[in-house]
Inverse folding.
């Protein structure tokens, strides 16, 4: 998503509250269908809060909630780079009404990803996850302080080949290395800075980049592929969670169909021996009373 799009949504919704929200685990079945970009062009879902968005879909790439690689039930967030290699790209993005809170309050976050063995991009590449951060803490008066904190296995700890044809769960915590992309500035080529370093805010950023601190606010989350990936990629993402203070602040499961909720059966009351004898006594007394009235 472009910086302009983030700011448009931000003024209308993201900046509506500066406190963190708590969202219960939820199944998302929309947007439905597969979104495929033209071979020379970009398509995006309309920007709305509290919905998963298919964003930055470029040059033949495809994205959608499909049954290609089901995770929990019948679906997941499908990602395909398309035929145009390094120019293709596709991202899943989510912006809550309000925010996900400050970086200081973030304990950890997780997501699942899948790489099909038919993929021909470099063997260390997999769908990444990004925290979308407002560096100065949700200040509508600033427009150039959005940054992405990006996780890749390549920097945790090396560019070894990643698993294929299986779902992999990543847990990102204080010791995990994250790198920064700041729209309008570029990629900060520092790849050994941890989440704890950003929380502390004691590091010295590269000239031109803003310093992310514990007071920086998480306004969204993004998962995606591409932009410079030479070759093909076929895979998916699912089950993203953000937790703080040991409680889930956000949990999302992408499915084609919502699971059927079966109402719990109502237990049939049972009587113990004491209750049964008491009931027999009450009924017997009632019958005796009725007979006396009839015969009297």
């Amino acid at each position: 998503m472009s910086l302009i799009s983030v700011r448009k949504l931000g003024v209308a919704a993201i900046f509506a509250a500066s406190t963190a929200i708590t969202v219960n685990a939820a199944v998302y079945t929309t947007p439905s269908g597969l979104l495929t970009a033209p071979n020379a062009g970009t398509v995006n879902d309309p920007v709305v809060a509290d919905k998963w968005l298919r964003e930055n879909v470029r040059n033949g790439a495809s994205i959608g909630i499909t049954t290609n690689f089901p995770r929990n039930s019948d679906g997941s967030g499908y990602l395909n780079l398309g035929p145009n290699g390094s120019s293709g790209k596709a991202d899943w993005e989510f912006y809550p009404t309000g925010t996900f809170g400050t970086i200081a309050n973030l304990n950890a976050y997780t997501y699942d990803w899948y790489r099909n063995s038919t993929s021909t991009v470099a063997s260390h590449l997999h769908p990444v996850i990004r925290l979308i951060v407002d560096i100065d803490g949700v200040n509508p008066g600033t427009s150039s302080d959005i940054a992405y904190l990006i996780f890749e296995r390549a920097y945790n700890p090396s560019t070894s080949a990643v698993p294929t044809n299986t779902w992999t769960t990543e847990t990102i915590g204080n010791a995990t290395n994250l790198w920064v992309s700041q729209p309008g500035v570029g990629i900060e080529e520092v790849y050994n800075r941890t989440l704890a370093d950003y929380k502390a805010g004691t590091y010295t950023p590269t000239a031109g980049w803003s310093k992310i601190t514990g007071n920086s606010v998480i306004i969204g989350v993004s998962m995606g592929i591409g932009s410079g990936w030479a070759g093909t990629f076929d895979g998916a993402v699912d089950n993203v969670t953000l937790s703080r203070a040991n409680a889930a602040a956000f949990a999302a499961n992408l499915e084609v169909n919502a699971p059927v909720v079966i109402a719990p059966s109502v237990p049939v009351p049972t009587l113990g021996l004491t209750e049964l004898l008491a009931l027999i006594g009450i009924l017997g007394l009632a019958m005796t009373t009725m007979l006396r009235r009839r015969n009297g």
